[in-house]
């Protein structure tokens, strides 16, 4: 273990505490703590504005938002999805009594491979749930074409895709719904939090009803099986404060991303992942793939970095399809998922977050490069 300060895969952005005090004072004065209070409303409006989307419904976390998005989609049967994601993606299907059907990923983007989707469609298929993995956009146009041809809904797990844009604007405009996570480890965080992006007023109203126990606007009629998905005023206020500095946070991430790319390019056996479609990236993660040209296995490198006090993560290993909850599904067979299986055994996500110093980035690079020479 190194005597230097540990380097984590991510650290949340925290504005100076004194800047948060006036927000707390306002909450204390108004004594409105939750249930769609003033900060909640202000954050929804500010996020619509910043992200360039029509409607946002805030949630207590991204998983609740995924669960409600699928409920709002009002589907049954099978949903095509990726095995290369966080477990919450697939859990949200099962909680809605939907059957996940895993389709392999594209080796460049590590997102659901559109060329493999049609072969997995059956009469029971009702939707596609792709993930913009690491904030790199899916092939949204190819997915839309397939969905339209087969009459399928598209619900994007956009947990990583805060602020990502393509040439047409926000990546969150695609699909029927997109779901964000504002967890502490994300580019933009409200400690815990999440949101559903929708495109029309009626859908937003339905989602807002579902996240508030199913209550209609009269506050007494309950016609839907809703849940409690609300975000509290403290979380919303923190989000508003953090949004002020988001530009600088994204810029700092970009600088780190560029430094890694520049310096890791010279190390044999280490491949950096490129986003293909984004005009504005968010640099949410910095995944690298370790292949046979590198002297250590991925797991040996992971351990080597840990011994040096560098705590990386193997997002997303093991594959969701290998977890005991899903491994019995026919589509979970590794033979059906060769790219995802290979990538899950090669990936390491390196530290990237605002405040990670140039020196710390160089420490990570040196540790990878030294181990590569051993
Ligand atoms: N869909 C996708 C594609 C997702 O990636 C996620 C969540 C979801 C849906 C569900 O959204 P939420 O319901 O979570 O909003 C993390 C997060 O818990 C999870 O939100 C995230 N994806 C997933 C990819 O990663 P861990 O197990 O890596 O977290 P943890 O606690 O090990 O933290 C990693 C590092 O971050 C630590 O080494 C130190 C640092 N850290 C973490 C926390 C929580 C801090 O410095 N402060 C903190 O408060 O799961």
Automatic annotation (TrEMBL):
InterPro entries: DegT/StrS_aminotransferase (IPR000653), PyrdxlP-dep_Trfase (IPR015424), PyrdxlP-dep_Trfase_major (IPR015421)
Key words of the record: Aminotransferase, Pyridoxal phosphate, Transferase
Keyword Cytoplasm: no
Superkingdom field: Bacteria
Keyword set includes Transferase: yes
GO function terms (MF aspect): transaminase activity
A Pfam match: DegT_DnrJ_EryC1
Sequence similarity: Belongs to the DegT/DnrJ/EryC1 family.
Protein name: Aminotransferase
Top-level taxonomy: Bacteria, Pseudomonadati, Pseudomonadota, Betaproteobacteria, Burkholderiales
């Amino acid at each position: 273990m190194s005597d230097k300060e540990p380097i984590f895969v991510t650290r949340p952005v925290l504005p100076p505490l004194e800047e948060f005090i006036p927000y707390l004072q306002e909450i204390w004065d108004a004594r409105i703590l939750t249930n769609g209070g003033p900060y909640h409303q202000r954050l929804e409006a500010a996020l619509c504005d910043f992200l360039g989307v029509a409607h946002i419904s805030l949630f207590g976390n991204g998983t609740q938002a995924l669960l409600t998005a699928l409920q709002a989609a009002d589907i049954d049967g099978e949903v095509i999805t990726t095995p290369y994601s966080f477990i919450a993606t697939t859990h949200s299907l099962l909680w809605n009594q939907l059957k996940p059907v895993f389709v392999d990923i594209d080796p460049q983007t590590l997102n659901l491979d559109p060329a493999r989707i049609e072969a997995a469609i059956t009469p029971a298929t009702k939707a596609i749930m792709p993930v913009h993995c690491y904030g790199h956009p899916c092939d949204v146009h190819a997915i839309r074409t397939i969905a339209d041809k087969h009459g399928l809904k598209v619900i994007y797990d956009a947990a990583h895709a805060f602020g990502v844009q393509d040439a047409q604007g926000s990546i969150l405009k695609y699909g029927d719904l997109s779901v964000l996570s504002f967890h502490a480890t994300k580019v933009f965080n409200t400690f815990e939090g999440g949101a559903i992006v929708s495109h029309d007023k009626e859908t937003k109203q339905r989602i807002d009803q579902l996240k508030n126990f199913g209550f209609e606007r009269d506050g007494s009629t309950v016609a839907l099986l809703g849940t409690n998905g609300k975000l509290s005023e403290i979380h919303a206020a923190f989000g508003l404060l953090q949004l002020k500095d988001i530009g600088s946070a994204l810029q700092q991430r970009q600088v780190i991303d560029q430094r890694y790319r520049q310096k890791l390019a010279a190390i044999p056996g280490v491949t950096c992942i490129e986003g293909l479609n984004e005009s504005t990236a968010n640099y949410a993660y910095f995944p690298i793939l370790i292949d046979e040209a590198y002297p250590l296995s991925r797991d040996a490198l992971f351990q080597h970095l840990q011994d040096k006090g560098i705590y990386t993560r193997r997002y997303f290993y093991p594959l969701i399809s290998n977890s005991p909850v899903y491994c019995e599904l026919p589509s979970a067979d590794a033979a059906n998922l060769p790219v995802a299986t290979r990538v899950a055994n090669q990936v390491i996500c390196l530290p990237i977050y605002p405040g990670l110093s140039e020196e710390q980035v160089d420490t990570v690079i040196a540790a990878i490069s030294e181990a590569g020479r051993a």
